[in-house]
Every structure is written in C-alpha cells, then in structure tokens.
Amino acid sequence: MTDTQALENINRLYRRFVRQCPGTSEYSERLADEIEIILQLRFVDYFLQIRDILDLTKDIPHMTRGSAGSSLVCYLLGITDIDPIDWNIPVARFLNPLRDDLPDVDIDFPHHKQDEVMQRIFAKWPGKTARISNFVMFKEKSARREVAKRLGAVGRLPRNFTYKSLGLDEKEAKRLERKLIGKKKCISKHCGGILVFQRQLPKSLISQENQILLDKYEVEDLEHLKVDILASRGLSQLMEIDPMPAKDYPERDPKTEALLQRGDVLGVTQAESPAMRRLFRAIKPKGRADCVFGTALIRPVAVEGRRKASFFHDWSRERITESIVCEDDAIEKIAKLTGCNYFEADQYRRAFAKRNEEKVLEFMHRMGKHPKKDELIQELYALSGFGLCRAHAVNLGRLIWALAYQKAHNPHKFWKAALKHCQGSYRRWVYRCEAKQVGAYTLPKGKSDVIDDPVWQFKRYGWWSHKEFLPGMGIKELFLDRVQFSGVIANGRVFRGDKGKYTTFLTLGIDNGQYIDVTIPKPVAYSDYDVVHGIGRLKHSNGTDYLEGIEWKNYRIDSYYQH
User: Fold this and answer.
1) 89 lies in some domain
2) Between vectors from CA 331 to CA 77 and to CA 73, what angle results, nearest 5°?
3) Hey, which residues does 135 pair with through a beta bridge?
C-alpha cells in the first residue's frame, strides 16, 4: 500500500467518525496505533461496512457486545458506546497485528426488531448478503441413538441402552457409530450471523430464505465480512419502559444500589438467575461500575467457584483488579509477568482457550521459575471455560444497571415490560406474582371469580388472585440446625459435577416476594412437580442463606394438599 492509498483510507475512516477524538496525547497515540493496525491488516472496508449497517438502523436502538468496545476507532465511528480509554481496555483482544482474521463485531438489537434489521440489510445489498448456517454434528450419544434406529430399533429408546440389550450386532453398531461421529446431523440458521460479500453470492451455496450453506468457521476462511445481528430481550424490555440509552443512566443511585444489594433482580434480564441474585447480595454493589465488574466476576466463578469465592467475602474494586476476572485482565497480567507486549500476551491467552499445547508450553518456558507461574496457569485454564472480555462486561453491566434502575423507580412500567419481553428460567407464576405486588398484573376477566380457592386457581391457571401466598408454604425450625420446609418450585437446574455426581439447585417460593435456594445431592425431575416438602439444614454462605436438603419429596399441587 502506497502512502497516498494509506492517507486516502485514513481519510475514509475519519469522514465517518460520529464522535470527535479528545485531543489528549493518550487518545492521539491510541488512535494512531489502531489506525496503523487497521491499515496493516487491510480492515478499513470492514469498519466502514459495519458503519453502513448502523446507518440503515439509526431509528432502532442497538448495543454492541463483545470485544468491539475495546477499540477507540469503533467508539469514534459510533459502532460502540464504550470509551476504551475511560474503561482502561487494551485493544489487543479485538485488534491484533499478529492475527489476520477479521475482528468479530456482534450487535444487539431489540429482539422484536431483529427481522426488520435483517430485511433492511438484504434490501440494501441484494444478492450479496445471506444468513449463516449452523451445522449440528453427531456426537457420541446422538450417533449411538441414530445407529440403533438404523439397525432396526423401534419405539422409545431407554436412556442408558446398550446395543446388546436391544439385540443388535454390537461390533457392526460400534463400527457405524465411529463413522458417524463428527458428521453433519442437520442444518439450522445461525442465531444472528450475516455474511456480506463484496460480489454476488454463489447461487450454488444459497438455500431458501437467503441462507448460505456455510457455517461461521467456513465464512471466516472466506475472509468476507461477518457480522452478528443479535436479538436482545433485555434491550426490548428497556426500550419498552424508556427510550433513554443504557449508557446515559446515572453512575450512582441509592435506590438502585439498595435493590441490587437485596438481590431483588427478578425480571432483570441477564441478572435474575439464583447465582446472580446471590452475587449481588454478596458484593453489595455501590454504583454502576461495581455492577459491571460483578457481572464479569460471576462468569469465571461459575467454572472455578471455590478458588474465586474469596471475592465474595472481601469485595472491593482494588481486590478484583488483583486477579483475572476478564480476558483483558489475563492479557495485562501475562504482559506484566513475561515482559511481552499486549499483542503477544493475547496470543498466549488464546492458546489456553484453544488448548494449543505447543503455544502453552512456549508460554511456560517463557515464565521460567516465576513464583506466580502455577497460579497464573491455573487462572488462565479456568478463564478459558467461560470468561468475558471487559468491553462485553461493560455493556452487559450497563444494561443490568439500567433495568435495575427502572425496577427501583418505575416498578409498574418495569413489570409490564418484563411480562412482555423477559423469558427467564423462572416459572410464569413467579413473574405474575411479582408483577401483582405493584399492580402490573391481574388475572384475565372472568377467571379470578370462578372458584374462590387459590389452590384451585393455581391448578387451573398457574396463578392465584388472592393476596395471601399459597397456604402451608414456609420454613419451620425443628431441632439443632434442621428446618422443615415447603415451597412452590420457582426455578431449577441439575448440575453434573466431578466424578459424575449430580446436584439439583432449586429456588422455592415460600411467601410473596420471598424465595429460598435449596441444594439436593441427586438429580430431581423438578419440571414434573409443583411443590417440594422436606427437611434440610439452614446454611449461610457469601452473605446469603440457603437450605441443604436432607429429606425431601416432590408433589403435584393437588397431591400435596391431600397429603
């Protein structure tokens, strides 16, 4: 590329900036560095194409998730609302001259607007755009079932069947199974991936409804623009309440902080899981920044909870920066301990995520006998399980904070929007019960007055119109540390731990607006039941109470009251 071409490309970018770059040396140097990388990797057209897509959707709110918030150029182009200098985010996670693959830009739109956005893109570039496919592959379990059916097994197959138990030729069946594993099972649409070609799409690769028969990895190999147009229910919920962007909410607010500190996050999309409720009660966030970093903290904690549990006991902004919580933390720590630059550090981080053992060994050799070597390696492997980059944490934390703000200040509007857009893991009665407390939900006319019996109404409609909670629910102290409990199932999850051991986590409603978490050391088919009754130990951990089940039994609502 000649100097003249480089200058023209720089000017093409500058002309599309929607924000003025601050004149400080920190911003100027960061901008110059990013521009140099973009020119070197020939990514100018990529950034301008993203800007073209956003120009098509100026009337539709959006949030850019993922690592795009690491880039000052993305911020100045209006692709993201995150100032990476303000949030101290290095660009290496997004742009790296040591990689030649296109950076990944994921854009969230309100979920009810996703199809409209895609149609605008198809209309703007007809014949040059298409949805990306997902290829569902045969894995061991699905391959085993497919082979059994092909060899003549009929009817519903038992969960742990063997070829021998079905009277099939075991040797032949295992041969077919090995051939099938890794092969394509079926094709579906990617949830939001769109491919934009610089020329007409090859018709041989296009199926119905503007779908190209390539997955995201094959698309990346073609080196054409891929952008994810994603649907966000949280953004739909927020826009339903107030069109103000999430970034414009105040940094501090006593009512919002109090709500989060209570763990009162039901209906707050992306933050209402039992784990998130416990997290906010534990760390007691003070301001939006704590909400952001707490949101990031829960991800790696889900992988290595015991090792990182100390954060819950002694939460502080200073403490969290001492360890690896976000992927950017890993980059910074690797660079500090090895003396390499951020771009090299990101390569080492990716080596752990991709299980590139050759690169991992290179990193270990470079660390030598450093006293923190083993600790760092452990953290990097843990982070690879499920970690967030800092920019994504900022966007997610901002959305959670904005929704929590609205719940604290406008509960009626909040619950009206939540009932319409929120699709969490809790049962429907939970949302209706919570909404009813603020007058945002009533039973449809003609239903509440059929039979004046809350149990009958729950059986018939999954809801009751009475002010009182369902009778008989609650916790009763017995002796020592044991309690008797009865509660309506609000949420559940079966977790498979080490050595194949299962634990069921349940959230039970015990009164209006009151819930208790229960752990049961076995898999429970909770979806088939309404009520759990039993004896447990009351435990306290990380600022929250929960029950450890000792004896328990599941009931349908009618059999519980008969019992």
Assistant:
1) yes
2) 10
3) 187
Q: How many domains does the chain have?
A: 4
pLDDT on residue 313:
45
Dist. CA 511–CA 9, nearest whole Å: 63
Distance between CA atoms of 50 and 275, rounded to whole angstroms?
Answer: 35
| Whether residue 318 is found in the same domain as residue 275 | yes
Dihedral sign for Cα atoms in the order 163, 169, 174, 177? negative
> What pLDDT was estimated at residue 558?
87
Q: What are phi and psi of 312, to 5 degrees?
A: -70, -25
Give the global pTM.
0.85
Contact 227, 105 (CB under 8 A): yes
* 54 and 167 assigned to the same domain: no
* Token pair in block for residue 91: 């660009």
Q: What is the DSSP string of 207-243?
A: ETTTEES--HHHHHHHT-EEEEEEEEHHHHHHHHH--
Task: List pLDDT tens digits, range 400-431.
Answer: 999 999 999 999 999 999 999 988 889 999 99
Is 411 a member of any domain?
no
The least confident of 198-202, 221-225, 509-513 is: 221-225
End residue of a domain, out of 391, 417, 450: 391
- E strand or H helix that includes residue 546: strand 544-555
